[in-house]
Amino acid sequence: MTALRCEATRWALDDDDDFYPGWVEVRLTDAHGRQWVFFDKPPIFGGGDALSPSAAYPIAVTIGCTILSRTSDPNGSEVVTVSTGGRPETTDGDQSEFDVRPDQLVEP
């Protein structure tokens, strides 16, 4: 599966009965320079045991995605449109498609 490189920036919620195993904040800067923020449980970001309340952030993580298209911007640079399938959600709600640079992808 293709994955999108992102950065876990902080532990967002402590472990408790409602949020076990806790939540982490992850940021993505898209091909247009816009920053997107995601919150979800560590396994969603492939960070494994590296994501914890005591970890030294930032930590490189990934989000699974599907490539929808490849185009070029006005400067001739390749732009890849991907979908995260709605999980994790951004703080902007239902945004799940993003334009990214090819070097932001981990392809099989």
**pLDDT averaged over residues:** 88
The residue ranges in which pLDDT falls below 50 over 5 or more consecutive positions are: none
How many separate helices? 0
| Span between termini | 6 Å
List how many beta strands DSSP finds.
7
**Percent of residues in helical segments?**
under 10%
How much of the polypeptide forms β-strand, as a percent range? over 45%
Principal-axis shape equals elongated
Sequence of secondary-structure elements: EEEEEEE
Q: How would you characterize the largest beta sheet?
A: 7 strands, antiparallel
Number of domains: 1
Describe this structure in a few short sentences.
The chain is 0% helix and 47% strand. It has strands at residues 2-13, 23-29, 35-40, 59-72, 78-83, 97-100, 105-106.
